[in-house]
Amino acid sequence: MSQNDFGVIELVDQDRVYPGSRFSEVRDAMFANPYQKVWGAPGEPPLPFVMPTFFDMLRALWRGRHFLTQAAERSVDARSDLRWGPDEKGFRRIVHPWGVVLTGLWEITEDSGYTGYFQKGSKALVVARYSNGGAVKRGKPRGQGIAGKLFPTTDPHHKEPLQTANFFTIDDIVGASTRYINDVDFVNAPNVTLSNDWATSPIVMTAGVVFAITDKDPTERQLHEVAELGKPRDLPTRAPRFMRLKLAPGHPRIEGEDLDSRDELLAMMFDKGDPTPRREIVFTIEVTEDGEVTGRTGFKKGTFRNWRRIGALTFDNAVVSYNGDHVLHFHHPNWRIDRNDPATRFRPAPTGSEAEKTEAM
User: Fold this and answer.
1) Least confident interval from 51-55, 59-63, 124-128
2) Across the chain, what does the average pLDDT equal?
3) Where is the segment annotated Disordered (predicted)?
4) pLDDT in the model for residue 51
5) Which of 24, 98, 138, 265 has its CA 20 to 30 A from that of 30?
6) Is 112 helix (H, G, I), strand (E, B) or coil?
């Protein structure tokens, strides 16, 4: 996909009908076209990378003054898990274009006081994507994030399509200089520090303004989808305000100056030149109600206290692929004035969409 080709970035008819997905279908699509058939093997090409720039935003604006708004609306309204497009090439991400897809298991092991798949005993297959907002190499500001897609089953071969629940976590939307993934706090209410990277800041500001118009808050991503997954409709929703994912203790620190973060993550699981995963990657799942986000768009700071570990996110396979960067789609949970009340949704559901029927899953 060329620099000037954004694919089908807006909401289309296929996005309006969402019967759900099969875990195996999504997983197999991610592993169908890796950039390297065997990560780190001799003769494999380097992982692709083109630094996102403000000119990408200008190209998008050149497509039409409503183009970026349509892209933001699609990210909120489209529940599709895979967006192939008519040419089967997917769409181009303007932000967070490069990433690693991971598959594994979400498991809640402690009493949480929350509903849905935050309840103790909940287990769900997960397809996640680790990505960077700008640069990918160590030593430069990187907005490191993890988006996740929960399937309410532990059977990887389930036959019936299932509706998924999506979540988003990131450290700083603009980027931070954290050297090791081991030290990153992935939170659903990330910091925004424009001064961390003035080169990326215009992209973040433009996207933030457009997203704020579309769905009120351009930074914090609420967690009600996970709290409503599998929940009886007559049971009131209770979702945590804040969630943090953090690499569990015991993982090695991968050394290397100018190390690509994708290589850093893959090295935790694979040995170079060996296609078989040798180690699991485990993130703790932590929640809290004790915190606040201060500041304005462009300069936001989250302060959190009393994190409680309630479970773990365990990944047993990973891939860097074209479909992971261009076809896999994560629905942004719509903003609610009261995160536990579907009736307070800020943005109306798209007319005629099956999503209207699945607002409270």
Assistant:
1) 59-63
2) 87
3) 339-361
4) 65
5) 138
6) coil
- Please state whether beta strands 291-296 and 165-170 pair in parallel, antiparallel, or not at all (unpaired): unpaired
Domain count, the chain: 1
Yes or no: say if 90 and 240 are a contact pair by the CB < 8 Å rule: no
CA atoms within 13 A on the CB side of 187: 27
More confident residue, 109 or 6: 109
DSSP single-letter state for residue 69:
H
Q: What does the pLDDT read at residue 118?
A: 98
Output the DSSP codes for 220-268. ----HHHHHTT--TTSPP---SEEEEEEPTTPPPPP-TT-BHHHHHHHH
Q: Sorting pLDDT into bands at 50, 70 and 90, what band is 353?
A: very low
Domain around 303: 13-335
For residue 357, is it within any domain? no
pLDDT at 54 over 90: no
Q: How far is CA 284 from CA 26, 116, 125, 292, in A?
A: 24, 18, 16, 21
The span from the CA of 308 to the CA of 292, in Å, is 16
What pLDDT does 65 receive?
Answer: 47
Q: Is 168 exposed, middle or buried (0-12, 13-18, 19+ CB in 10 A)?
A: buried
Q: What is the rounded distance in angstroms from the CA atom of residue 258 to the CA atom of residue 316?
A: 26
| CB atoms closer than 10 angstroms to residue 271 | 14
The model's confidence at residue 191, banded by pLDDT at 50, 70 and 90, is: confident
HSE toward the beta carbon, residue 102, CA cutoff 13 A: 29
Residue 321: inside a domain: yes
Retrieve residue 4's tokens. Answer: 């000037």
For the chain, how many helices (H) and strands (E)? 8, 11
Q: Where are the alpha helices (DSSP H) in 42-88?
A: 54-62, 67-77
Say if residue 64's pLDDT is above 90: no
How much is the average pLDDT of 74-81? 84
Residue 309 lies in a domain: yes
pLDDT (0 to 100) of residue 359: 44
Closest C-alpha to 268, from 285, 283, 251, 255: 251
> Using CA atoms, how far apart are residues 301 and 143, in angstroms rounded to an integer?
14
Q: How many Cβ atoms are within 10 Å of 323's Cβ, its own excluded?
A: 22
- Return the ∠ at Cα 181 (arms to 179 and 183), rounded to 5°: 75
| This prediction's pTM | 0.90
